[in-house]
Amino acid sequence: MAILIDGKKVAKEILENLADETVFMNPVPGLAVIIVGEDAASKIYVNSKKKKAAELGFNSIVVELPENVSQQELLNKIEELNNDDKIDGILVQMPLPEHINKNDVIEKINPLKDVDCFHPYNVGKIASGNKPYVYPCTPKGIIRLLEYYDIEIEGKNTVVVGRSNIVGRPMAQMLLNMNATVTICHSRTKNLGEITKTADILICAAGKANLITEDMVKDGAVVIDVGINRNKDGKLCGDVDFSSVEKKASYITPVPGGVGPMTICSLMVNTIDLHRIQKNI
Ligand code: GUN
Predict the structure, then answer these.
(1) How high is the pLDDT of residue 163?
(2) Which burial class, exposed, middle or buried, applies to 249 when counting CB atoms under 10 A from its CB (0-12, 13-18, 19+)?
(3) Domains of the chain, residue spans
(4) Would you say domain 137-260 falls under CATH 3.40.50.720?
């Protein structure tokens, strides 16, 4: 039976330590989150980011723009935040409406304020084995979890399922930079199970409920589930068939309570790190 990786507990510990630091900061770190439109899931995520930042005493602002906002208006808003000394980190919640070019938006963010590590300048740093200003929130949270549970990365066979810019791609690059052997799988991968079965560390970020079943996992593997899906009964679930896979894995993350809390935690750490860089402290 696998050991449960308790992201909620680890995130709480990290955030408590952060609160001890930020209480003495003056000026305080500033985080601006921009949300466009009415996507229900995005609204929930943005609210919890705002709440957590406010709890830590940050200057925490949310900019809500209507679904039909023009790209130029959105770019103007980012420019305004780029020039605002009270804002250290800017996050544009994804997905954006179809009429907006996501890449133009990301490239408008000052790389120094790119709290998500989405800007090509920072993405390129990771891809070339250098350090970005801060690492992307979800992969960073996953690495923190592996380190917390003393799970070695170097030399391990790692398989990342999913190639999104938010999780899969940066995750694979970061594991590679930490000397893991990395395989990336995605929706067109043939014989997925044959490949996932080679993983010492399996990271699933495909966004498909029950994609990973017990027969696709090696005995003793570490299984990290990034998926946030709803099953037939409307219950939150990951990409991994938890009840069968937990019998085979050595470590496993639950959904909820695994990777999710670590993502928000990394966002707070990143905001403080960008604050320190910009304010030279
Ligand atoms: N949408 C889903 N996850 C994320 C994230 O980590 N950052 C942003 N900006 N949008 C998201």
Answers:
(1) 98
(2) buried
(3) 28-113, 137-260
(4) yes
